[in-house]
Amino acid sequence: MKKSLNDEVEIILKKIKEIGINLQKVIYNIPSDINENTKIINPTGDITFNIDLIAQKEITTKMSQIPQIAAIISEEELKPIILNKKGKYILTIDPIDGSSNVEYNGSCGTIFSLYKRKSQKDQELSDKDYLQKGKDQIFAGYIFYGSSLVLVYAIEKNMEIFQYNYEKKMFIKIHENFKIKNNLKYYCINEGYSNHFNDKVKNLLQNFKKENISLRYSGALIADIHRILISGGIFLYPSTTNKQEGKLRLMFENNPLAYIMKAAGGIATDGNIDVLEISPKSLHQTTPIFIGSNISQKYNL
Ligand code: F6P
């Protein structure tokens, strides 16, 4: 019998849950060399840690068991990893986001999203399959390795949050159809770079300060985004004078998180347009991002 999209997404989600449980064990039972810098620089210039490579291997191995996955594009790999040329879906992954935090016992996450290939099954996979707009995602989510193990994902306008229960050994749904609050409880930004922000961002930060809004910044995107989702607020990684296109990767970080945030009723813009409307030009392209509660009108975002 032909499987519906939801059946197929369910199969992929089941694997993602297994990946989360396995990777959390790796992170929590940290071997002494886990934080070692591999001396490899990833395609966007970040240092690759052993944990990034372990996670990438775990995800590729698990996903290669699903024939519907045609290819994986990973933040850690320059080129797509082809799994099944006749497969139907392209999975994007950031195997461990915030891996540099593991050294300090900080939080980190795994980010993923799914696209349907655009080419026919008997055609070669090409950029038209890999470089799709964020609005073409069919589902996206993240695993958050924090003080508990959390899985968040969105399919269309429904965003759900699960927490791993160690007694039952399974993920339990804790929120369905979750919606972000429209209050600005926190803002998250690396203010150490403030001399390099443009006037619009500097003014925005001045306004936040006048209103006594609390600043939080962990250096791990998923930890900050999760805080914003749960309590309301805004995460900003704007352009700086030395990084005009920001730091965060469109395909691996900004698009999946924008898809989730918008499903939860929030916003995600690069400062000019909706992140989900950006036409990607390359796999490892970065963009500025302002993402969180819908404060566009009040602050002219
Ligand atoms: O993209 C990797 C990452 O570590 C994110 O998890 C985090 O939000 C960001 O970079 C931190 O960058 P910076 O150290 O420039 O503030």
Give an overview in words.
By secondary structure, the chain is an alpha+beta fold. Strands 4-3-5-6-7-8-9-10 form an 8-stranded mixed beta sheet, with helices on both faces. It has a 5-stranded mixed beta sheet with strand order 12-11-13-15-14, with helices on one face. A two-stranded antiparallel ribbon has the order 1-2. The chain starts with a helix and ends with a helix. The chain is globular. The longest helix has 24 residues, at 5-28. It contains 7 helices and 15 strands. The mean pLDDT is 93. The chain folds into 2 domains: 7-175, Fructose-1,6-Bisphosphatase, subunit A, domain 1 (Fructose-1,6-Bisphosphatase, Chain A, domain 1), CATH 3.30.540; 186-299, D-Maltodextrin-Binding Protein, domain 2, CATH 3.40.190.80. Helix 1 runs antiparallel to helix 2. Strand 8 (149-155) and strand 9 form a beta hairpin. It has helices at residues 5-28, 50-63, 127-130, 199-210, 221-231, 250-263, 296-299; strands spanning 37-41, 47-49, 69-74, 81-82, 89-97, 108-116, 139-145, 149-155, 158-165, 170-175, 186-188, 214-215, 233-237, 267-269, 289-292. It binds 6-O-phosphono-beta-D-fructofuranose (F6P). 6-O-phosphono-beta-D-fructofuranose is lined by residues 97-98, 190, 219-221, 247-248.
Helix content: 25-40%
The CATH topology name of the largest domain reads Fructose-1,6-Bisphosphatase, Chain A, domain 1
| Structural class label | alpha+beta
Instruction: Write down the overall mean pLDDT.
Output: 93
Shape: globular
Oligomer: single chain
Total number of beta strands: 15
| Number of distinct helices | 7
